[in-house]
Design brief:
The chain contains eight helices and eleven strands. With about 290 residues, it is an alpha/beta fold. It has a single domain (about 1-294), classed as Rossmann fold (3-Layer(aba) Sandwich), CATH 3.40.50.200. A hairpin with a 6-residue loop joins strand 10 (about 220-225) and strand 11 (about 230-235).
């Protein structure tokens, strides 16, 4: 996916596809794009209870394509990080990309109840709130992602696009358990949700003085699947950086299926590349998939 493709060349990496690894995506849903054919293993619509996959916004489909798109509609030009993994999209946001904490919590509970049935190993959450009411580690959203982590799932959460001030990591990314992802390239001016933005990636520390984000990945002008058959769209933000990390973890868990979520987090920390930014901007550093899988 655009810049992400730079990091995934190499014979060993391309022998891995994330096969057998289930990735749950809490977002606006997922359109059954041809690049995702036969790999939407299940779909849960918290919003309208529809039985079949759909996405009336496009954000969730874009995220899913970054994780798992196989590039069929583009002749392989726009391929996701783990094109062999299977997806479990959970629609918790409406057509405008808005939602409620209660819906996210219902989605997390559904994932925990079905994790073994669909071999869900990873949960991707490109959803966040900067409401002061939700900024405590005791908030419902943080408790929800912590419970999901404690159930053995690798939870990967966007840092949010509220930077560059300190203390702008959105909830539930403030959780000290989950893997919080920021943008490595937010110095580039891009369109994020209809606004021209630069230096937008959420910065720590949290209100509890926890350094965040944990890791950064490219998020500027990423091409991925749209919610129209055979079409692609360009989007930017920490929402796009987060599925790069989720896809990389799917490759890692295919190679080392015995790893638990703590092992994965430690490996990400050990193999990240320091790019010289402040700790509360870059975390451990830049995701490098070659290093991660070595």
């Amino acid at each position: 996916m655009n810049q992400a493709k730079i990091e995934i060349h190499g014979t060993e990496i391309r022998e891995l596809s994330g096969g057998g690894i289930g990735v749950a995506v809490l977002d606006t849903g997922c359109f059954p794009h041809e690049d995702l054919n036969y790999r939407i293993a299940a779909f849960c619509d918290i919003m309208q209870k529809r039985p079949y996959p759909y996405d009336d916004n496009g954000h969730g489909t874009h995220v899913c394509g970054i994780i798992a798109g196989n590039g069929n509609a583009s002749g392989g030009q726009y391929q996701g990080i783990a094109p062999g993994c299977h997806l479990i999209p959970i629609k918790v946001l409406d057509c405008k990309g808005n939602g409620y904490a209660a819906d996210v919590l219902m989605g997390l509970r559904w994932i925990r109840e079905h994790q073994r049935l669909f071999n869900i190993r990873i949960v991707n959450i490109s959803v966040g709130s900067l409401s002061r009411r939700n900024m405590s580690e005791n908030s419902a959203l943080v408790r929800g992602v912590n419970e999901t982590w404690d159930a053995g799932l690798v939870v990967v959460v966007a840092a949010g696009n509220m930077g560059p001030k300190s203390g702008t990591i959105t909830t539930p990314g403030i959780s000290r358990k989950v893997i919080t992802v920021g943008c490595s390239d937010d110095h580039k001016e891009v369109n994020v949700m209809g606004s021209r933005m630069v230096d937008y990636s959420g910065r720590g520390p949290t209100m509890s003085c926890v350094c965040k984000p944990d890791i950064v990945a490219p998020g500027a002008s990423i091409m991925s699947c749209s919610n129209q058959q055979g079409k692609y769209a360009c989007k930017s933000g920490t929402s796009m950086a987060t599925p790069l990390v989720s896809g990389a973890i799917a490759l890692l868990l295919e190679k080392y299926p015995e790893m638990n979520n703590r092992d994965v987090k430690l490996r990400l920390r050990e193999r990240a590349v320091d790019i010289g930014l402040p700790r509360n901007q870059q975390g451990w550093g830049l995701l490098n998939i070659q290093n991660l899988l070595a």
